[in-house]
Amino acid sequence: MNTIEQFNSHVMQTYGRLPIVAEKGDGRTCIDENGKVYIDLGSGIGTNSLGYCDEDWAKAVSEQAFKLQHTSNYYYTKVQADFAERLCNVTGYDKIFFGNSGAEANECAIKLARKYSFDKYGMDRHNIITLVNSFHGRTLCTLSATGQDSFHNYFFPFVEGFINVNANDIQDLKSKLDGSICAIMVEFIQGEGGVIPLDREYIKEVENICKENDILFIADEVQTGAGRTGTFLTSQAFGVKPDVTTMAKGLAGGVPIGVCLTTNQFGDVLVKGTHGSTFGGNPLACAGGIAVIDKVATPHFLDEVTKKGEYIKEKLSKCSEVDNICGMGLMLGISLKTKKASDILVKACDNGLLILTAKEKIRLLPPLNITYDELDMGLNILIRLLEE
Fold first, then answer.
1. What burial class does residue 68 get, using C-beta atoms within 10 Å of its C-beta: 0-12 exposed, 13-18 middle, 19+ buried?
2. Which pLDDT band holds residue 170 (cuts at 50, 70, 90)?
3. How far apart are CA 47 and CA 378, in angstroms?
4. Residues facing 333 on adjacent strands
5. Is the pTM of this model over 0.90?
6. Is the pLDDT of residue 1 over 90?
7. How far apart are CA 208 and CA 214, in angstroms?
8. I want to staple 23 with a disulfide (CB 3.0 to 4.6 A). Which of 3, 13, 33, 346 is the partner?
9. What share of the chain is helix, strand, coil (3-state, %, to 5)?
10. DSSP state, residue 209
């Protein structure tokens, strides 16, 4: 029995997996069990922010594993305190809740918003506005918040209290405002929805509406955060400061993590017994997160993310099959003229290139520290497949 047969005989088939058995990685390349090398322009859906086995990151996580791999959140750890302080300093927030994934971070944000409103206004002010085409996770609650009908099946009844409005349509949002709304939750770039950035004017309007109505402004930066778009948080590029921001994916460089960040104003809403996570703030994840922040949260590094994104756009714009490129930094969606992104995904795999899709688009989420030579190698393969 080969590895794939062994895997499929024991693991639920909840993913459409490509026939690659990843064995190890080095920098921005993945190597399968047969020794085939792949240039990775997907970085584990934006999670391997420093590529595979970055030396400083691996050293930090390994050293922590020899000290303390886990302890109950009934106790304190220095590595969690250090990471929390650094992340707050970089993002401008004051308080953090630690979880293990983007969905968990979003669950925390939802609970925080509802409890804040309950404490201040009572139990009838609990609805949260989310956007059509959004994606906030796969737990029953975050799936309910997700504004895509394709996900709304099978698992009825869904969690109540979410109202979808059209993205970039401020009048639609205003028409849904009433005394029942406690929060508005957005992604600055709708990643799973097709790498679609929101309008900056719309985001500023959302921020103003939230301030005027004592509604929490929640930013889901699970995919856009940790330097992915050229600023550490994409809110910084949009010139806004949400009340709550969630992060995950690339924040710890590949170790499971999720965080919910907020200001002092809302930092004491969730008190003892109202929320928790067994593995939240895990020492290994915190050590990995410190290593990521040390590398990513510098002006030069973030400027390079922006420059590399522009380099990709410039190179791909010359390809006859490319219709349009959207996104920011190293979070890009590529619309094609005649070919199917899903077909290119499979062909790219056969040719030693790992990419992603988002709806009908090719999606690129390269490691943030990818070199220009590595980009050229990957993009040359992609362009050849698009033009053949």
1. middle
2. very high
3. 18
4. 326, 363
5. yes
6. no
7. 10
8. 33
9. 40, 20, 40
10. H
Digit-coded pLDDT (tens) for 217-246: 999 999 999 999 999 999 999 999 999 999
Q: Are 163 and 130 in contact (CB under 8 A)?
A: yes
Show Cβ contacts of residue 56 under 8 Å, excluding neighbours closer than 6 positions: 291, 294, 295
**Residue 32 tokens, joined:** 């399968």
* DSSP conformational letter for 314: H
DSSP-based three-state secondary structure for 149? helix
CB 196 within 8 A of CB 167: yes
Which of 351, 312, 316, 335 is closest to 18 using CA atoms?
A: 351
Report CA dihedral (105, 106, 109, 110) to the nearest 10 degrees. Answer: -140
Q: Who's near 224: CB < 8 A, 6+ residues apart? A: 187, 188, 189, 191, 233, 234, 328, 331
Neighbours of 175 (CB within 10 A): 10
Report the distance separating Cα 13 and Cα 16, nearest Å: 8
∠ at Cα 186 (148, 107), nearest 5°? 80
Q: Where are the alpha helices (H) located in the chain, listed in sequence order? A: 3-8, 43-46, 55-65, 78-91, 102-121, 140-145, 170-176, 200-213, 234-238, 283-296, 299-317, 341-350, 372-387
Does residue 292 contact residue 355 with C-beta atoms inside 8 Å? no
Find the length of the chain: 388
C-alpha dihedral sign at 355, 356, 362, 367: negative
